[in-house]
Design goal:
With about 325 residues, the chain is of the alpha/beta class. Helices cover about 40% and strands about 20% of the residues. Bound molecules: flavin-adenine dinucleotide (FAD).
């Protein structure tokens, strides 16, 4: 089922989470270990992230450069189908612009359609390691809005090759990312919000936010979205802090602020077990307030270890 239909049919806040495909070589059992402890809380759907292959250049004895593509976490499409058919739960595979030509994106969408998957989260993806800024694949989409347009076009039977005949329309529900504390590359929140509106105008059905630790920022973001005419559901993304090093890592990687109270509580912890507990308590408080405010869904970032998410949802749902 489409995420938008799941949301529209529900009278109360729903629960979902996102997981990563296992590291190359690992088995589907890793996915099962993440999902099964959370099944009793009836996730409405599950997101599966996409990871851009890394390109490594190695000098050969001949002096020539060999270009090797290393896929660390392949399998988004397969993992999504595995979850859908093993557990009968709807899935939202993530798709990114980076590393794909438009033809390859179309092939991935056709595969997802054959697999009976109704949703995608359309993202640009981050810049390659060491690169100065994001570089699209030659012939690939440059921004998430271009990917949204491509999915929407396919939903209307419009393929990359304009001469394609025997057209089969897809019917994907499209989610996109939003940033309550603005995306790192945007000059200010206002222009970032206009980029978000462009994604919605291009056909996105709902928004999932980057993680945030201060609900006031989310509420303000929703107000600002509504003020510029974004009417689709906005789903808060939550990640419980679980390691002391998150205090520096999360702001650096995701360009988000951590409230001083949370920083102080984590700094008082003697070990990461205590940090994990602080993260759970903060997550419970955030989730309860968001649920009371009537958000459509609470979306948790699991990072593969579900015990902290389990403790939170046990208290909240
Ligand atoms: P875009 O919406 O394309 O925005 C990128 C930048 O371009 C922004 O600064 C925006 O303001 C700007 N911009 C957009 N349109 C215009 C325009 N017309 N003119 C000028 N500037 C413009 N990454 C992965 O690799 N795999 C994942 O599975 C993944 N999952 C994610 C899930 C969620 C919920 C979130 C929030 C992020 C996820 N990401 C993932 C990270 C995401 O790929 C990065 O944050 C990326 O840097 C931006 O992606 P986007 O889709 O928001 O890009």
């Amino acid at each position: 089922m489409k995420v938008i239909d799941i949301i529209n049919r529900s009278q109360s806040t729903l629960f979902t989470f996102e997981l990563l495909p296992p590291l190359k070589g690992a088995s589907f059992s890793e996915i099962e270990e993440t999902i099964e402890p959370l099944l009793p809380y009836s996730p409405s759907y599950i997101n599966v992230t996409y990871h851009r292959p890394e390109v490594v250049l190695r000098e050969q004895p001949s002096g020539l450069l060999e270009r090797r593509i290393i896929k660390k976490r392949p399998g988004t499409v397969g993992v999504s189908a595995g979850i859908k058919y093993k557990y009968g739960i709807d899935v939202v595979p993530h798709l990114i612009c980076g590393g794909f030509t438009r033809e390859e994106t179309e092939d991935a969408l056709i595969d997802l359609n054959f697999l009976g998957i109704d949703n995608v989260l359309a993202l640009r993806g981050d810049a390659e390691k060491g690169a100065h800024g994001f570089m699209p694949e030659p012939g690939g989409n440059k921004l998430a809005v271009d990917l949204v347009k491509q999915v929407n076009d396919l939903n209307h039977g419009k393929y990359v090759d304009p001469e394609s005949t025997n057209i089969q329309k897809t019917d994907f529900c499209i989610g996109v990312a939003g940033y309550p504390e603005k995306h790192s590359e945007a000059p200010n929140l206002e222009t970032d919000l206009m980029s978000l509106k462009a994604k919605v105008d291009a056909g996105a059905d709902y928004i999932v936010t980057q993680m945030f630790f201060n609900n006031a920022k989310f509420f303000e973001f929703v107000e600002q979205c509504r003020a510029i005419g974004i009417t689709v559901p906005i789903i808060p993304g939550l990640k419980p802090i679980s390691l002391k090093k998150h205090l520096t890592m999360l702001p650096q990687i995701f360009h988000i602020d951590l409230p001083q109270d949370l920083v102080d509580a984590v700094n008082r912890c003697k070990n990461n077990e205590e940090v994990r507990q602080v993260g759970v308590e903060w997550g419970i408080a955030q989730s309860k307030e968001l649920k009371a405010a009537g958000v459509p869904v609470l979306h948790y970032y699991t990072m593969g270890k579900p015990d902290n998410i389990e403790k939170i949802v046990k208290e909240v749902f």
